[in-house]
Each structure stands twice: as C-alpha cells, then as structure tokens.
Write a structure and sequence with these properties.
There is one protein chain. The protein has 400 residues and is α/β, with parallel strands linked by helices. It has 2 domains: 2-91, SCP2 sterol-binding domain (Nonspecific Lipid-transfer Protein, Chain A, 2-Layer Sandwich); 102-399, Rossmann fold. The protein is built from 15 helices and 11 strands. The protein has helices spanning 2-17, 51-55, 59-67, 77-91, 110-121, 125-129, 150-164, 182-189, 201-213, 251-261, 287-294, 304-313, 325-341, 343-349, 352-370; strands at residues 22-25, 31-33, 41-45, 71-74, 172-176, 193-198, 220-224, 234-240, 262-275, 316-323, 374-383. The strands form 2 sheets. Strands 7-6-5-8-9-11-10 form a 7-stranded mixed sheet, sandwiched between helices. It has a 4-stranded mixed sheet with strand order 2-1-3-4. It is elongated. The protein starts with a helix and ends in a 17-residue tail after the last strand.
C-alpha cells in the first residue's frame, strides 16, 4: 500500500508538469495514467523493486529497466522514445548534459578498443543484415534528393565520399574501420587499390568473402588490424563511423597517425558523429550513460570545434566541412523501422537483452539526431602547409 501511495504521489507530480499519454501498469493490475488523453504507451512494472527506476526516470534508468526486464513497454517504438524523453526531461533535477568524465573512459588501449568493437559488431552478421541495406553500410546515408530508399542513399554516400577525396584510378586507399567492405569495394571498382582494416572478425570474414566473390582480390585487402599498426603511405584515407571509438583525449594522436599514413598531396575524409555540446559532454538525461554501458563501451563524442582543433594538432588542414545531421536522423529512423518490421527474425537471431538494447538504441539515435543532441560531419583534410595550388578552386568536383 505504501508503495502504491508513493507512486500515486509521483504520478500526480509528473502530471502537474507535463501531459504524457503514458499508462503505468503495476504487477497487480492497478494503473496510473499520466494524461487525460488515451495512452499511446503502456509501461508495465514487473514488481515493487522495479519502482526505483521510475522514481528517478532518467534515460539511463528507464533504458536499464527495460533492457534488464524490470519493466516492459507496449506501444510504437518512436512513441516510446518520445514519451521516455519527455518523462526524463520533466523529472530531471539538473537539466542538460552530464559531464563526460562521469561515465566515459579515455584509457583507450588496443586491447580495450578491440574488446569494445567485438562487443558491438560481433553480435552476428545476420543480425545486422536484418535492418541494414543489402551492402550492410552501417553509417549515415546520403539522401541527395530526399526521395531515395536506404540502399540507394548508402551507395550515394559512398560515391559522395569518393568524389570528395578526388579518388582516381591507380590511387592507393586506406579505409580505417572498413565494416563489411562496401566502401573499399566501391573504390576498387573505380580503379583504386585498397586496404580496409577492422577489429571485428565477423566483419573481416564477410568483407573478404564479398571481395573474392566480386573478383577484386587483387585490388582489395581486408585486414583484422588496429589502425595504429598499419604501415606505409596512402594517396587517400577514409575513416567512416570509426573515430567515435578513439576517445576525445586521443584525437590528436589519432589524426597525427593518419597524417603519417597520408602520402604527400594526399587527401583524407573523416566521417563521424559529434556531440553538439561545446564542452564535449554527453547527451542529456542519461542517454549517454545508457549507450556507454550497453551499446558502445568506451565510446566518446567530441564537439566539432574539438575535432577541428585536434586535426590541426595532428598536422592536418581542414578543407571542407559538411553537416549531415538530417541525413543521419533519416538513416536511423529507417534502420529502426526495418528493425521493427523484422522483429521476429531478429528475436530468433539474438537474446532478449540484445534485442531490447538495439530496439531502443536505434530509435533513440533517430530522436537524438532530430533534436540536435548529436550531429554528423564529413571533414575533408590534407597535410597542413601543403601548396594551395594542389587544391581544386571550388567544390564543383565533388558533384560529378
């Protein structure tokens, strides 16, 4: 009885702040509605011990309760995410973002980075195939007109990158964090000789199979290798959706290593997620804590200003910057829709915990990009101090 009275007082307090079409359903069948409107989401509480998550409903607590099975939620996934964010915002004692130092680790050894990558990417290739495009491009797509389907937009993203770096036949290209090989394969089809590196065994195996199947083994080498161990110099370097794993404190060394690997007059593209908080703090209301614990261990996002500064510290000159935040919001929303449409298949491919993690993660990312909590920038660089005469006069070359 005391527990139910406490929850009743809590729900009354929430209703006084915000109108949420949310129903709380207890283990005994009792319900509490947080709006006079019909509920769009029902949150089912498994037992009295689960109520502690509701008393402080940060995104971390709500996400943790769902993933660990303390609560269940019924409703459309985007409604769940929207209402969860409103609930967390209405109950936050300190609005805004949590400091990066509170929950993120900057000690990025090769062993820890490899372990984190395996945790995220080695769920199974079949798992990712269930919601990605046929080429399995796991990064922001490029909707040139806004009318493209996901598969077309991902091919256009790769071509957009290769055009931006001015890839030509005979160039050598290093793709850092090559995923399942789509970019390296596309570059090879345009006449380049490519090395792709990944720390995921599943990615490397499938990428090699694809390279061999397409008859590109003489042009593409897929390595299970840390970028810090790569030797040689390359005409072009791409890093797509990888530098988020490096750690903010390690960015100068990361870009410095890229500079060492870049041939004279070479060009590099860094395509990655950034935080929109100028102090490189995490996303609001505990969302960053949830991602760090359950999705991307040791991942860290830097603000664009920090990225540009550390590029300069690494000896690179920024030539071109493009914001693709809206494109990533569309990409994540499409992934989330695919995930929902293939939920039965995905449940059969993984356990309940991983299913729940990814369900809220994909939809939550769509929300975060849409609301400018995080962003995506493509940044084209060259070696600092390079003769400006080597650079094109305009951006026209990017849009063949």
């Amino acid at each position: 009885m005391f527990t139910e009275m406490k929850l009743s007082a809590w729900s009354t307090g929430v209703r006084s702040k915000v109108n949420l079409p949310l129903r709380i359903e207890l283990w005994n069948g009792q319900t509490f509605d947080l709006s006079s409107d019909p509920p769009r989401v029902t949150l089912k509480v498994s037992g009295p011990s689960a109520l502690r998550y509701l008393m402080v409903p940060s995104l971390y607590n709500l996400g943790r309760a769902y993933v660990e099975g303390a609560i269940d939620v019924v409703g459309r996934v985007m409604d769940i995410i929207n209402i969860g964010n409103e609930l967390a915002a209405s109950s936050a004692k300190v609005p805004g973002r949590l400091a990066r130092a509170m929950h993120l680790v900057s000690n990025h050894t090769k062993e820890k980075d490899a372990e984190a990558i395996r945790y995220h990417y080695d769920v199974s290739n079949e798992f990712y195939q269930a919601f990605l495009d046929p080429n399995m491009v796991y990064s922001c797509a490029y909707f040139e007109t806004g009318e493209e389907d996901l598969a077309t937009a991902q091919v256009r993203k790769i071509d957009h990158i290769l055009n931006k770096i001015g890839l030509q036949q005979g160039h050598t290209l290093l793709d850092i964090g090559c995923g399942w090989g789509a970019l390296a394969i596309r570059a090879a089809q345009r006449g380049a000789r490519c090395i792709g590196v990944t720390l995921s065994e599943n990615q490397a195996l499938l990428a090699r199979e694809r390279v061999e199947r397409l008859g590109l083994s003489n042009q593409v080498e897929i390595r299970l290798q840390d970028y810090r161990d790569v030797e040689g110099q390359f005409d072009r370097i791409t890093s797509v959706g990888m530098f988020e794993h490096v750690g903010v404190d390690n960015l100068p060394a990361y870009f410095g290593r890229i500079n060492q690997l870049l041939a004279p007059n070479g060009v590099v593209m860094n395509h990655g997620i950034t935080t929109t908080d100028i102090d490189s703090r995490s996303t609001p209301y505990g969302g960053g804590e949830f991602i760090d614990k359950y999705v991307f261990p040791h991942g860290e996002l830097a603000h664009l200003s920090t990225v540009i500064q550390t590029m300069q510290q690494g000896g690179l000159e920024v030539r071109d910057v493009e914001n693709l935040r809206r494109h990533y919001a569309r990409t994540c929303a499409t992934w989330s829709e695919n995930f929902e449409n293939n939920s039965e298949r995905i449940r059969a491919l993984t356990d309940q915990k991983h299913y729940r993690i990814w369900r809220v993660y994909l939809a939550g990312c769509a929300y975060a990009f849409s609301h400018d909590w995080i962003s995506l920038y493509q940044i084209v660089c060259g070696k600092a101090g390079q003769d400006p005469a080597m650079m094109p006069w305009s951006r026209r070359y990017m849009y063949h």
